[in-house]
What we know:
This protein is of the alpha+beta class.
Amino acid sequence: MRTVLGALAALLMLSAYAMAAEAEGHIKKVDRDKMMITLDDGKSYKLPGETDMDGIKEGMDIVLAYDKVDGENLVTDMQTSE
Length: 82
């Protein structure tokens, strides 16, 4: 039984990891009220609540990891260049 539970837990972790996606581009629009950014490809991403929005500006290069939840792209990690 312990082996079955361990295998199930490993499968769940792998499936969650497989759902993560990456994107990169230039920030075209910043919506500070909704905590959203839009990249130059037109796709929008919701930032986590603890994000310092003062450091995010239009025109910056960005690489981000995100999960799609309920049709919304939720950022899980990001790197920006100044």
